[in-house]
Every structure is written in C-alpha cells, then in structure tokens.
Specification:
The termini are far apart. About 20% of the residues are buried. This protein is of the alpha/beta class. About 30% of the residues lie in helices and about 25% in strands. The protein has two domains: about 45-115, membrane protein fhac (Ubiquitin-like (UB roll)), CATH 3.10.20; about 115-245, 3-Layer(aba) Sandwich (Rossmann fold), CATH 3.40.50. It contains seven helices and eleven strands. The strands form two sheets. It has an eight-stranded mixed beta sheet. The protein has a three-stranded mixed beta sheet with strand order 1-3-2. Mean pLDDT is about 85; it is low at about 250-255.
Length: about 260
C-alpha cells in the first residue's frame, strides 16, 4: 500500500476562527429573523383590517363590535376568539356564536340569535320583544321597528309564557302573521287563551297543542267565508266549532 497523503491538522487559532464565524452567522440569522418579525408587526399585515358581523337581526352591528372589543388597527394576533365568544354569549339574544380569524387582518363574528316570536305590551306604550325561549327583552327598544309578531297582553305566568313561545315557533308563518293579539282566557284552565285575529275572528284555544290546533285555522276560515260567516268566535280545542257574534252574550261585533 502506498503512503497516504497526510491531512494537515487545524491549529487552535483556526478552530477558534471557524467557531467564531459560526457564532457570527448564527447571530446574524437571529438578527435578520428578529428584524423581519419587527417589520411584520409594524406593518398593516399584522393589524385587524376588517371586523365582519353576520347573523344579527335584533342586535345592532355597532353594539356587537363594541362588546367584542375588537377594532380596526388592533393587533391581529391579540384577538382571542374564545374570550369574545364568552362575552357575547352573555347577551340574552345570542343562542350561538362563533369567532374566527382569517389572515390577513379579517375577524369574523357569526351569530345565531334566538328568534323573537311575540311582543309584550306594557302599559300600552312600551313594546318588549319576547324570544322563542320565553325571555322578555326588557331593555330592548322596539318603538321604531315593525311589529311583525303577535302582541301579548295581561300575561303574568312565565312558565306558561315559555310554553306558548315554544308553540309559536311551530306555527306556520302565514298563520302566525294573522294573529294580532293573545291574552289569557281567565277561565279555570290556565292554558286556555284567546287570540284576536287580523281578519276579524276571535279564536279560543289552548297552549296545550297550540300549533296543532292553529294548523286548522286557514281551512276553517276558508269554509266560514264561503258560507258568509265573517265575524264570530272560532273554538279550536279538542273539538272545532264556530259561534257567530250575534249568538254570544255581550258581543256586538268586532274584537
């Protein structure tokens, strides 16, 4: 075998020099990364550029944004979706909420509200929305909005109110829209109620099976009108029958 060519060994100074170069390169890389991070966090890309609210009908957009405490120009990475969701779930109108971030700069707040199914008339002046779970929005101002649901009068039993709202959710929109007012019947059965309809009829029914009973209303009224019976009381209970106003003591026509 021939002699191997001898590889020169590194001196201590050469080793120190190489080690120093590696350290300098490492520090340079760290500095460059830090500089890039600093530039990024000072750039518009790291800021909230849009706050999008969807699904709100009763809640004002500005009110939701204020409660979320997120504004344009805030740090995008400081937005905590779980904290915002927790805060918005405190609102009685909110059934579900989902907060997401979309890079760059977009925050989405998706709301699912409890539907309002009725209104409570207080002192003949104050209109209070009533949600599908029976909660009355005492602090919600509704005076300048459309009254598109039945008005409840003289209602005190909160348990029965919740049951009624649950039933109202099941009623067909066309029938629900035809109801003007609902009040307790003040009879022995606390679930008995009286409905004043927009077409002039008065309906006596019960919270028990309310939606099922009211499903009869369109066809029942259609038959009455064919017979020329356009004013009177419709009984929608276990049995269904009609009483003309002239046959009811004290009735002079109208509601």
């Amino acid at each position: 075998m021939g002699d191997f060519e001898r590889v020169p060994t590194l001196t201590k100074e050469q080793k120190k020099k190489r080690k120093g170069n590696r350290i300098l390169k490492g520090l340079g890389s760290v500095f460059l990364v830090g500089l890039c991070i600093l530039i990024f966090f000072r750039s518009p890309l790291s800021k909230v550029d849009e706050v999008n609210i969807t699904g709100n009908e009763m809640l004002e957009t500005d009110h939701v944004i204020a409660l979320s405490k997120v504004a344009k120009g805030d740090s995008f990475f400081s937005v905590q979706p779980s904290e915002i969701e927790e805060e918005l779930k405190k609102l009685p109108e909110v059934k579900e909420v989902l907060v997401t971030r979309e890079f760059p700069g977009k925050v989405w707040i998706e709301l699912l509200e409890y539907r309002h199914v009725a209104f409570f008339m207080e002192s003949h002046t104050k209109i209070i929305p009533v949600l599908e779970n029976g909660i009355r929005l005492e602090n919600r101002v509704w005076d300048d909005r459309v009254i598109d649901k039945p008005i409840l009068r003289e209602w005190k039993d909160q348990v029965l109110l919740a049951k009624l709202c649950e039933e109202l959710m099941k009623v067909e929109p066309l029938v629900l829209h035809a109801i003007s007012e609902i009040e307790p019947a003040l009879v022995e059965d606390p679930q008995r109620i009286i409905l004043y309809m927009k077409d002039g009829y008065e309906v006596h029914t019960s919270i028990r099976h309310f939606a099922k009973n009211m499903s009869w209303y369109p066809s029942f009224v259609a038959n009455l009108k064919q017979e020329g019976k356009d004013k009177g009381t419709i009984m929608l209970l276990d049995g269904k029958w009609f009483i003309p106003y002239e046959n009811v003591d004290g009735k002079a026509g109208g509601n």
